[in-house]
Amino acid sequence: MILVLVVMTWAIALALGAGLIVQPELGGGVRVSGETTPTDFVTAVYAGGSSLSIVGSSNFSTHTAPMKVFFLLNAVIGTSVISLTLTYLMQVYGALQQRNTLGLQLYLLSGETGDAAELIARLFPEGNLSAGYSILSEAASRMTQAKEAHHFYPVLCYYRFREPFYSV
């Protein structure tokens, strides 16, 4: 919910900002094709918001050089923000999946008890230290990666699951 709200806030702020710039130009530098151009703020936000994508989905057209440059820059900014946001979301979900995999791996290694003593006993049966060394080393490496993911994406702290085996 937090990530969706952040994306929506960015999109609304960009559309409102573009609307503030476009409104004084409605009817002059920005016009509706073949009709009288409304000059209200909602129309300006719609024209500015629809220019945030390269495709453009409105019937507004630019008639001055500054507005043409503005709509071009607005499309580049909108596309960049959308691309960066989607990339961020994919990185967060990738880090979340790695963290959950680590939690489940440790849970299964402990014989589905979640007990650290049981984990050590299963990794090193009868005092044989070489048996579980590589498994423990891999788990330590994954734990370091999970810790660093939390530094890069603090929003991961808000993702909690009811199943105890997902908590590292």
What does the secondary structure layout of this molecule look like, with pairings?
Elements lengths: L1 H21 L7 E3 L8 H10 L9 E3 L2 H45 L6 H8 L9 H20 L16
Antiparallel strand pairs: 1-2
Helix pairs in contact: 1-2, 1-3, 3-5
Q: How would you characterize this protein structure?
A:
The chain has 2 domains: 2-85, Helix Hairpins (Orthogonal Bundle), CATH 1.10.287; 92-166. Helices cover 62% and strands 4% of the residues. It has helices at residues 2-22, 41-50, 65-109, 116-123, 133-152; strands at residues 30-32, 60-62. Strands 1-2 form a two-stranded antiparallel sheet. α1 crosses α2, α1 (2-22) packs antiparallel against α3 (65-109) and α3 packs antiparallel against α5. The protein is rod-shaped and about 85 Å long. It starts with a helix and ends in a 16-residue tail after the last helix. 15% of the residues are buried.
Features:
two-stranded antiparallel ribbon, Helix Hairpins, mainly alpha, about 170 residues
Question: What's this entry about, in short?
Answer:
With 168 residues, this protein is mainly α. The chain has helices spanning 2-22, 41-50, 65-109, 116-123, 133-152, and strands at residues 30-32, 60-62.
Poorly predicted runs of 5 or more residues: none
Please write the CATH class name of the largest domain.
Answer: Mainly Alpha
Give the count of helical stretches: 5
Measured by DSSP, the beta-strand proportion falls in: under 5%
**Percentage of residues in helical conformation:** 55-70%
- Name the shape in a single word: rod-shaped
CATH topology of the largest domain: Helix Hairpins
CATH architecture descriptor of the largest domain:
Orthogonal Bundle
Largest pleated sheet: 2 strands, antiparallel
User: What's the pLDDT, averaged over the residues?
Assistant: 88
Succession of helices and strands: HEHEHHH
Sheet with most strands: strand arrangement: 1-2
